[in-house]
Amino acid sequence: MRALLLTVLLGGCAASAVAPPSDQAPQVAAVAETDPVDTANDAADDPAIWRNPRNPGGSLVIGTDKKAGIHVYDLSGKRVSFTPAARLNNVDLRDMGAKGVVVAASDRADVNQAHVAMFALDTAARRLVPTGRFAVGPGEAYGMCLWRRAKDAALFGFVVLKDGRIDQVAIDLTGAAPQVTTVRSMKLGSQAEGCVVDDRTGKLYVAEEDVGLWRFDADPAAPTTATAIAKVDRRILFDDAEGLALAPKGRDGGYLVVSSQGDNAYTLYRLPDVTYAGRFRIGGGAIDGTSDTDGIELRLGNFGPKYPRGLFIAQDGDNAPDTQNFKYVSWADVLRALGLR
Fold first, then answer.
1. What percent of the chain has pLDDT over 70?
2. The whole model's pTM is what?
């Protein structure tokens, strides 16, 4: 019955209307890479980007080592600080103006009780300051993404549990330390992880790894119904569908980017209608390419001459002979390779 339901829900998705062979994915060279994480095997997981509005060259990248803690890197990929923390998985951040840069990570230290680990990014010292660890709900925390609501700048988080449940939390920043409260739950049918929220439209996108992509209304007062928007078809999107990132343009346009982990590629969908726009791989340059990518992140804007239109970052699952790390790619190079604007 479930397989039939998924076929009905996903079969008509516009995103799969044009499906070229999976090998039609140009290579885009990495511009830089981070120092390898300290622990071996499956360790590096998910990046987040803070763009310094006054000095884009001084922007920072945050990356999790899910066996040891969380790193801060500069734009050359050099590690500038490290904060020990047990089993952090996905990470996201929002610049909250006078309240500072807020960082949240899914905390898997207790597989029976999901937690959110909160940090403040000290942009001058280039380090993370822990501000609390908060219980969310039963289960193993996996994915994590933040949403800053446009109408009132209220901050919310979404914790994706390994069984497909999604717990939404409200993050109160009015006190000396954050307060995190679970406000509602949603559910997908199987393992999910990657998520991202479009702050412009209040839409939450979640990747159910072996099934496809779903969209929810991010407002806590909205229905919890999921809308199917793209399926794993093993042509333009392969299982496992992992990390998600956004390239916003205008009021509701731009691109949704997905890590198509099963064939070491990245798939783009046009917003708002979520139609297929292209695919690429990272490789072909002096720096080795990526494979088995978990988390990705993208931030538009000028980051300096190497990244004039934005910075795309992907976790590299095989950085042999070194341990895993993160690769930096110019978003301008991606658009050029795909013939996009």
1. 93
2. 0.94
